[in-house]
Structures are given as C-alpha cells and as structure tokens.
Specification:
The protein is of the alpha+beta class. It is 25% helix and 33% strand. It is built from five helices and 15 strands.
Length: 263
C-alpha cells in the first residue's frame, strides 16, 4: 500500500504507535498464557462411568456438552472396573480399556465421605467439587450443583519451566491458618486423555461406538500441604491430546479444596 509524500510522516508515527500497541498486547497475552492460577473458586465434576453400563452413554455425552458450554469447568472421567466381569446374556461382557480398580476405590471412598445429593456406589455417578453426588445423566441436578460456588482454600499456580519447555512448574500458596488447618492434605496430579472413541464388542452396550471425554489414565501424588515448607513441584507437560488437573484433596474423603487444569 502506498501513501502520498505529505502523509508519510504522520502515518509513520501512527504506524509506530499501532505497532507498539500491538506488541504490548501480544506480550500481555503471552504472559497470561504462560502463567496461570486456580482462581478463587472450585468447579470440578468427576464422572464415574463404564463401557459395560447401558445407562452410562447419556452421561458420557452430557459431560462432553458441559465441557463445550463452560470453558471454566474442570472435568475428570473415572472408568470403574466392577462392570468388566458382568455377563449380559449372549452379548457376554466387555472389559473397559480405561477401567481401574483404583478408580472404583475412589468412588467407594466418596461413598464413605457421605456426600449430599445421591451418594452410593453406582454408574453413572457425577460428583461435584467432592461434596455433591448426582446421577451422571441428570442435567438438572448436575447444573444445580455446579452453580453452588465453593471458595478455594488454596491457590495453585503453574508456569512453563524456564530451562525446559516440556516441563511445568506447579506451586501451591495459601494463608498460614489454612496451611496449618489442612497440613498433610494430598496434592494430586491427575492425567487424562482429551477424548476417545471405543467400539464396544460385548456386554450391555454391544455394537455401540462410545465417545468419552477427559478419561483419567494416571493419578499420582505430588506432595502434601505443608504448614512451613514451600510447595513447589515440577511435572511433565501433557502430550498432545492429553491434559491434567492438580487437586488438593485428602483422597476422596474430603471436599476438593482447590483445583487447576494444566497447562
């Protein structure tokens, strides 16, 4: 694009100002993306599901819709293993490839924790913020539970490692009173697959193709809340098609005190 000679000086000044403004915006955006924190509230849904359960596909679909409609929602899908050996007539059984006895145990811990709503051990079951249970396909009850704000007891921060972009630095901060009151509470990293399509060859869902979201495949303890020492950890950044959530919670026996999606 060409300008007349008498416009060149003012346009150069204008272009310079616009360029500077653009650079400042880009720097600001990059800084925001590089370092994030968990905010002031908890908004987490855990879905306990199974490929062997005929009532679960609607819940799996609902979880995907909730994620699409709410960018602030954190979600984890735990596949239990107690459906794997159940035989459904001539269709037999189906072993859920994402299932684990550890996830079944997590659900049993929630049952001991005496959640409000509809507690117990069943599928599909949604647990919101570690305090309210609902049938996993019940949109109204889940939406109502998600609207109940729960203040985070701690703040979780993350930022890329300066020395290695494949690593993330995770830190936890909180006031001294909270740290003393909840000292020893687990700080847990949960890794998940963004989504997967599975062909079901047996059991109640035989011949269906099921889509699942935020499918948990690893749960590991990073550390514990300390009343004195720093709480800083370095983890591997998720691979393509994966994600992770950092939780502060004592197993599944307490509310979720704070949660952050990474990266």
């Amino acid at each position: 694009m060409k300008f007349c000679s008498h416009d060149r000086t003012p346009m150069t000044g204008l272009r310079g100002a616009l360029t500077l403004l653009t650079m400042l915006l880009l720097v600001s955006t990059a800084a925001t993306a590089a370092s994030t924190s968990s905010g002031k509230s908890v908004k987490l849904i855990e879905l306990f599901t199974s490929h062997g359960c005929s009532s679960c596909p609607p819940a799996d679909e609902l979880l995907g819709e909730l994620l699409d409609n709410d960018p602030e929602l954190l979600a984890l899908e735990f596949h239990v293993d107690y459906w794997n050996s159940l035989v459904h007539g001539s269709a037999g059984n189906f072993v859920d490839p994402f299932s684990s006895s550890k996830y079944s145990m997590r659900q049993r811990e929630y049952s001991v924790a005496k959640l409000s709503g509809r507690p117990g051990v069943y599928t599909p079951q949604a647990v919101v913020n570690g305090v309210i249970a609902a049938v996993g396909s019940n949109r109204r009850h889940i939406s109502k539970a998600l609207k109940i704000e729960r203040a985070a007891a701690f703040e979780i921060h993350q930022e890329p490692s300066a020395s290695d972009p494949s690593l993330l630095n995770i830190s936890v901060t909180g006031d001294q009173q909270q740290r003393q009151a909840l000292a020893g509470t687990d700080i847990t990293l949960v890794r998940y697959i963004d989504s997967a399509l599975t062909e079901i060859t047996g059991g109640e869902n035989r011949n269906l193709e099921l889509v699942n979201h935020h499918i948990v495949f690893e749960v590991m303890q990073l550390g514990q809340i300390s009343s004195g020492s720093d709480m800083v950890y370095t983890i591997s950044a998720p691979d393509d098609g994966e994600g992770c959530v950092v939780l502060i919670q004592e197993g599944a026996l307490t509310p979720v005190y704070a949660a952050l999606e990474c990266p």
